[in-house]
Design a protein that fits this description.
Blueprint lengths: L8 E5 L6 H12 L5 E6 L17 H6 L2 E2 L12 H17 L3 E6 L2 H9 L9 H26 L1 H6 L5 H14 L3 H4 L15 E7 L3 H18 L1 H10 L15 H12 L9 H24 L5 E4 L5 H13 L5
Parallel strand pairs: 1-4, 1-5, 2-3, 2-4, 5-6
Length: 332
């Protein structure tokens, strides 16, 4: 039996706080001795400028060590879709390979990974009439009721959305009403995937905890570090722009949404009422745990991945060893 063909692209996924940045930098350092490496961010929050602390954006030093792409490419007022990501990432993979470098896809937005690796069908455009009808329905039964309706017609999508995620629930129900198909079906349909696709020779690795409590502790530590680094001031500055609102995809990112809501709470209280930092911390950590749970669920639906236990002391070394083995053609 011939040795498996070495992958032309490496992908590193994992839930939030699982150590993806450290793993990616270690891979870049080791693989960089053989060939140049360029990182493509697979993160729906890192695309936004001015959102640095709450997204745990790679530092300027880290970005100087290895080129990064798809970071700071949008103003928080501008949305960025999975379809746009696929277009941008596919172009970058081709360009990076043409430079003789190895593309390294790194991030935790699992929809982006799935859309890029499996293909994504063209979803119907927004329909203002349908959206207005859905908003009227939500006014009557609430978004938890709309989430229950989504669970009836598209249980797969409903399972990964929080009952209060009004924007995504509305979009999923809109797609169902316009097309007669669940949103989840668009995320799993391959559109002409073949050997010519830049992602066809991609090896997917994932950092996943064996002990969920370890990840929970990491999430809490990282959120505390963000608060200490000035996360509240970062959100205050974003609010101070005057053109952003909590329904934007950027402001619905985990942490930012909870901070925005706490500022709204403060604004309704008597002048001089301090921000409820304990509540912000509690809600921010809880929301981040929920995000991590959804990310792990997505990962488990990707059978092609090679999982690395991120809570082992040897996690980074294990990742590097596994990736090198694939590049050398000595691992399946």
């Amino acid at each position: 039996m011939s040795a498996p063909e070495a992958p032309q692209t490496i992908a590193l996924a994992g839930p939030t706080a699982s150590g993806k940045t450290a793993g990616a930098l270690a891979l870049a350092a080791v693989i960089g001795k053989r060939m140049p490496v360029e990182i493509i961010s697979v993160d729906s929050a890192l695309v936004y400028r001015g959102m640095d602390i709450g997204t745990a954006k790679p530092t300027l030093e880290e970005r100087a060590f290895v080129p990064h792409h798809l970071i700071d490419i949008r103003d928080p007022l501008q949305p960025y879709s999975a379809a746009e990501f696929v277009q941008d990432a596919t172009r970058l993979i081709t360009e990076i390979r043409a430079r003789g470098a190895l593309p390294l896809l790194v991030g935790g937005t699992m929809l982006y990974f799935k859309a890029l690796l499996d293909g994504i069908d063209d979803m119907p455009a927004a329909d203002p009439a349908v959206r207005a009808q859905l908003e009227a329905q939500a006014a009557e039964i609430g978004w938890s009721g709309m989430h229950a309706e989504l669970a009836r017609v598209d249980p797969v999508t409903a399972a990964r959305l929080a009952p209060g995620d009004s924007q995504r629930i509305q979009r999923a129900l809109e797609v169902w009403q316009v097309s007669g198909r669940p949103l989840s079906s668009f995320h799993t349909i391959k559109t002409g995937a073949d050997s010519a696709r830049p992602t066809s020779a991609t090896a997917l690795f994932s950092l996943e905890p064996e002990n969920r409590a370890w990840l929970h502790e990491r999430i809490a530590q990282r959120f505390d570090a963000m608060l200490a680094a000035g996360f509240v001031d970062e959100v205050r500055g974003l609010r101070g722009r005057g053109d952003l609102h909590p329904d934007l995809p950027s402001m619905r990112c985990v942490g930012y949404r909870q901070a925005w809501e706490e500022f709204d709470w403060q604004a309704r209280r008597p002048a001089g009422t301090p921000l409820n930092m304990n509540m912000l911390r509690e809600r921010g950590i809880a929301a981040t745990r929920q995000l991590a749970k959804r990310q792990i669920t997505w990962l488990r639906s990707m059978p092609q991945r090679q999982a690395i236990a991120c809570d082992r002391p040897t996690a980074v070394a294990d990742l590097v060893h596994a990736v090198l083995a694939r590049l050398d053609g000595s691992a399946p």
